[in-house]
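Here is my example:
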Amino acid sequence: MPAWMEAGVWGGLASSALLIGALLGWYVRFSAKTVAHVMAFGSGILIAALSFELVEKARDQAGNLWVALGFMAGAAIFSQVNYLLNLPRHRKRSMQQTDNKGVAIAAGTLLDGIPESIAIGLLVASGGTLSLATVIAIFISNIPEALSSTAGLRSAGRSGGFVVRLWLGIVLCSALFAVIGAVFFGSAPGPVQALITCIAAGGIFAMVVETMIPEAFAETHELAGLVAALGFVVALAMQGLGG
């Protein structure tokens, strides 16, 4: 299988959790605390994955300066676009959102997925091993996001067909960005790959801090740190098995 096609498959697989979350959000009524626990767990596992899979590999390819520049650039890009989308500070509390806000949540979800998918494409096309921890981290983090936002769209009166088309489109876009990461950056020089990888890592980190952790803490309070730490440790365990 060509590297670009493999990247698209992995990108689509990781983002397919959005469809699972959407179905759960449509048919099952979870408590806010349950969603928050999953959010905290996903935060920990994502931070571990970006630290040991993305940033660590980038440091092997280039110096700390490239890592720092890319990471800060990615965080700045995500924060600025997130601000321009005018999403509320706790944008995943969709039961309180209007229809327009529900669509904005979906736009924010796509924004979350872009750096994740590009990172997947880079890892596949550059000859590196795509770890199970990275895929599972992205997969888990997508479920509560789609779950909570779908509940808001349902409350706003959107049809099930609209919700399925919306999330399916985002899954396909995520697969496309994984292909883009593989085609345009997979054969780039090491320092360029390191820079792009860290831009993706910085965007993911900013997403976790601005969206996932605040939501988790709002509902679980001090337990958010403990559950996130559990996610981090689980990711470490998977990293060890994969390595």
About this structure: Confidence is low (pLDDT under 50) at residues 89-98. The CA atoms of residues 36 and 216 lie 4 Å apart. The first helix runs from residue 3 to 15. The chain has nine helices and no strands.
